[in-house]
């Protein structure tokens, strides 16, 4: 029984690392690409910078929110793992 619990905890730790790592990588790439496109479009048409800036900040918030939802899910599995209740029988 203790082996199953240790196995679930170790796989959960690996899963948490993958969730946070890939989420951070995706958010960084998304923000980097979006920021470079914003700078490029602002250099081409400076009169559109206020409109593009507000939309860029909105999208940056959504990208960060998606990453933070992944972090919250990972922390949920780290603190209150629902998979352990299936093994322990409670």
Summary keywords:
single chain, 90 residues, mainly alpha, F1FO ATP Synthase, 3 helices
How would you portray this structure in words?
This protein is mainly alpha-helical. It has a single domain, classed as Up-down Bundle (F1FO ATP Synthase). The chain has 3 helices and no strands. The chain has helices at 2-44, 49-79, 82-88. Helix 1 (2-44) packs antiparallel against helix 2 (49-79). The longest helix is centred in the N-terminal third of the chain and has 43 residues, at 2-44. The two termini are 14 Å apart. The mean pLDDT is 93.
- Number of E-type strands: 0
- Based on the coordinates given, report the CATH architecture: Up-down Bundle
- CATH class value: Mainly Alpha
Helix content percent band:
over 70%
SSE-based structural type: mainly alpha
What's the helix count?
A: 3
Strand content: under 5%
For the CA atoms, what is the radius of gyration? 20 Å
Q: What low-confidence regions span 5 or more consecutive residues with pLDDT below 50?
A: none
Order of helices and strands: HHH
Shape call: rod-shaped
Largest sheet: none
- The rounded distance between the terminal residues' Cα atoms is 14 Å
Q: Give the tally of structural domains.
A: 1
CATH topology: F1FO ATP Synthase
